[in-house]
Amino acid sequence: MDARPVRWLGAKIVISYHAVLWPQFRPVKKSWRFLLELNRIFILRHAKGILSTSRDIRGQIEQLLGRDKDRVPIFDHLPTYSPAQFADISPPDDLPRRPFRTFFMSRIEENKGVFDIVEIARSLEAARPGEYRFDICGSGGALAALRQRVTDLGLEGVVMCHGFSNPEKVSELMSSSHVCIVPTRTNYEAGFEMTCSEAILAARPLVTSAVCPALDYLRDASVEAKPDDPASYREAIVKLSDDPQLYASKQRACAGLQAQFYDRGNSWYSAMRRALDPYARKR
């Protein structure tokens, strides 16, 4: 899209990015770099404002804008919630309690890391039978294949694939969990990954990697794994399950990170208002 016809009509362009512009941990293909450059020339440099959902996204926008970055204001925002959304979720049980339960909720696709969860479960069940359980909520194109993989490995009692779950079911499963996992893979252009913030709002420590931009905001309550590395995720889960002091410290840290997601001043709506405000005043 060329922004010039829109600008000639007097319209102001404000762009909202909810995901990184390119995968952060993989080489950018020449064809993708070409499209990004067209985006910069015809769209970005003419914008009156750009909304960004994370520091990682902001960094890529600034990199793409180059010398034009000082001309185009960027407005940051975060996912925002009502405290009532998490009121029905019980605090996690004190450790040690077995089985140690890990919760995942997102679209069921390969690039969301769902098959990595099965591999984590397989290795843990082989090494420490009966000590770990995994609840997976969500629908998607890979749900049937995921269920088949669980069946093929004989893990039906270890990995529960619940499919689409209503809010009551999600609250029930999260209440019985100890931690949340977000193992998004490097071949996905991740957004903030709202399930990361939702883990913290449910007072559950988070296991994820730097693929998820949310980690930058939630590090105190998280254990970081290596991207695309099921063994690293497994190690993070074992650390949290075997070290009550580590688990308690990460769980306590959740409380100090929640306010930013309840603050309406951090919302997308507030960021858009800030972007449009200079032009509204001129009417």
TrEMBL record:
The keyword Metal-binding does not apply. It holds the Pfam family Glycos_transf_1. It comes from the Bacteria. Keywords: Glycosyltransferase, Transferase. Coiled coil: none annotated. Residues 96-248 form the Glycosyl transferase family domain. PANTHER family: D-INOSITOL 3-PHOSPHATE GLYCOSYLTRANSFERASE, GLYCOSYLTRANSFERASE. This is Glycosyltransferase. It comes from Sphingomonas sediminicola.
